[in-house]
Amino acid sequence: MRSVVVTGASRGLGLATAAHLHQQGWTVVAAVRKPTDDPRFITVELDVDDPDSVTRAAAAILEAVGAPDAVVHNAGIAGVGTVEEMPLSAWEQIMSTNFLGPVRLTRELLPSMRAAGRGRIVLISSEGAVLGMPGIGAYSAAKGALERWGEALSQEIAAFGLGVTVLVAGTFKTDILELTPTYGDHAGPYAPLHHGLETKGRRFTRIAADPAKFGPAVARALDDTRPFVRRAVGIDAKLLLLGRRVLPTAVLQRIIRVAIGVPGPRRAARSRGRV
């Protein structure tokens, strides 16, 4: 029976993924910050932001299932705020969790996977990695770094029979909006941006996809055989990837600004003229 490690498997897309893979016959190691008793999974305590926790978790994984057949790097955090508003400590935590966390765990598990001559590493990315999104610059930067690292990693490990798949996740109905801290000043100079983000964000959430649809996409990723694969999950992510390929950045940025309701250059210029 094939084994897979899913990080951030306590809720949202991680839990949906772990549940689906279990149904498909995988032995699922659910790596979570606060372990609970779930008979479907082998549960391992993991905080990807803590190097010592990563080392302990990797040892527990290897003891439980040996070299895993796949690792799904899903754990992550976000934060809302412009570069002026968000403290550097928040930037560091977002980068550490979303980017360095997968690097840390992969470093620990890769020797065993390389020796076994098999394995798939799946990186859960976001639309912010395709095009930097206003108000979530730190999250966009972290996911962008994750994708670039995945591209490099795939070339390093292909000779050993391993590969990397990047899944660009669209908008799904999870509790990420409720759990995401905001540093935005709604009375400050970026107030119009935050108003647009919140207003349009609530609308997008109402039409977001069911997390249960994400698990099958991960399952397909685990069967990828090419050294590197990138695909989108969700109609909005698919449209954005298509737009990235065929549209100039300036045009795509304009579309995004209109879609999420944030001020554009001309409006900002008029606002400065009234001050």
Class derived from helix and strand content: alpha/beta
Regarding CATH, which class? Alpha Beta
Specify the helix fraction band.
40-55%
Gyration radius, rounded? 19 Å
| Overall pLDDT score | 92
Q: Helix-strand pattern, N to C?
A: EHEEHEHEHHEHHHEHHH
Biggest sheet overview: 7 strands, parallel
Task: Note down, in words, how this protein is organized.
This protein is an alpha/beta fold. The chain has a single domain, classed as NAD(P)-binding Rossmann-like Domain (Rossmann fold, 3-Layer(aba) Sandwich), CATH 3.40.50. The chain is built from 11 helices and 7 strands. A 7-stranded parallel sheet has the order 3-2-1-4-5-6-7, sandwiched between helices.
Short synopsis of the structure:
52% of the residues lie in helices and 15% in strands. It has 275 residues and is of the alpha/beta class.
Keywords:
alpha/beta; Rossmann fold; seven-stranded parallel sheet; 11 helices; 52% helix; globular
Describe the protein's topology.
Layout: E1 3-7, H1 12-23, E2 27-32, E3 42-45, H2 51-65, E4 70-73, H3 88-116, E5 119-126, H4 127-130, H5 137-157, E6 162-169, H6 176-179, H7 191-206, H8 214-222, E7 228-233, H9 235-246, H10 249-260, H11 265-274
Parallel strand pairs: 1-2, 1-4, 2-3, 4-5, 5-6, 6-7
Helix pairs in contact: 1-8, 2-3, 3-5
